[in-house]
């Protein structure tokens, strides 16, 4: 499979999946994240990974086509999810997959005050947006939970995995 990790950061998920992929492009808007990732790719000697500075809510679409696009904990940082979903749909090959792991809707305490992104996502609303972008067979499961320590106890933030098909 030709794959794209979008909002890759330093490629935590990409490195886990890379052995099972033909080629993996890793895209992010942060030059700092991509610089760290370039060093990690060089250090591991992985030959099927390439970084890209890319904002699919502002830049023109690259010419590549992907069998699989995946993204972890990045969508809630991106304001225009509808445009992002349309761009990803255009980049995915027929019968390709989009897999997104991100926060379920929360009360804003995950990032705290001052955060301007999404306070997680309502699954039904995100499904509607994903279908509106053209995807089909959109389904959700709970992938994992992030536990944060806060006084006086702990708060559990569930993370969904959304799988959609073109
Ligand atoms: C919370 S980090 C997650 C990084 C990585 N996926 C992980 O799980 O470790 C969110 C990432 O989204 C990136 N990001 C923010 N806005 C973006 C955009 N419009 N397009 C692509 N990446 C973006 C940030 O630079 C950051 O690396």
Describe the structure.
By secondary structure, this protein is of the alpha/beta class. The protein has one domain: 3-Layer(aba) Sandwich (Rossmann fold), CATH 3.40.50. The protein is 25% helix and 38% strand. It has helices at residues 12-17, 31-44, 81-91, 123-132; strands at residues 2-6, 23-28, 49-53, 66-72, 92-103, 136-150, 153-165. The protein has a seven-stranded mixed beta sheet. The radius of gyration is 16 Å and the shape is globular. The two termini are 15 Å apart. S-adenosylmethionine (SAM) binds at residues 6-9, 12, 28-30, 33, 55, 57, 72-74, 77-78.
Which CATH architecture is right? Answer: 3-Layer(aba) Sandwich
Rg computed from alpha carbons, rounded to a whole number of angstroms: 16 Å
Major sheet characteristics: 7 strands, mixed
CATH class: Alpha Beta
């Amino acid at each position: 499979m030709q794959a794209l990790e979008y909002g890759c950061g330093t490629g935590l998920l990409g490195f886990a999946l890379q052995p099972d992929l033909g080629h993996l492009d890793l895209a992010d808007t942060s030059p700092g994240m991509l610089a760290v990732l370039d060093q990690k790719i060089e250090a591991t000697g992985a030959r099927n990974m390439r970084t890209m500075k890319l904002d699919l809510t502002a830049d023109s679409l690259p010419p590549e086509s992907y069998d699989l696009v995946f993204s972890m904990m990045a969508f809630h940082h991106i304001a225009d999810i509808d445009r992002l979903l349309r761009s990803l749909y255009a980049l995915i090959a027929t019968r390709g997959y989009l897999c997104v792991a991100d926060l379920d809707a929360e009360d804003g305490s995950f990032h705290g005050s001052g955060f301007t992104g999404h306070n997680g996502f309502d699954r039904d609303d995100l499904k509607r947006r994903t279908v509106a972008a053209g995807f089909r067979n959109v389904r959700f499961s709970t992938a994992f939970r992030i536990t944060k320590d806060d006084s006086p106890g702990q708060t559990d933030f569930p993370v969904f995995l959304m799988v959609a098909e073109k």
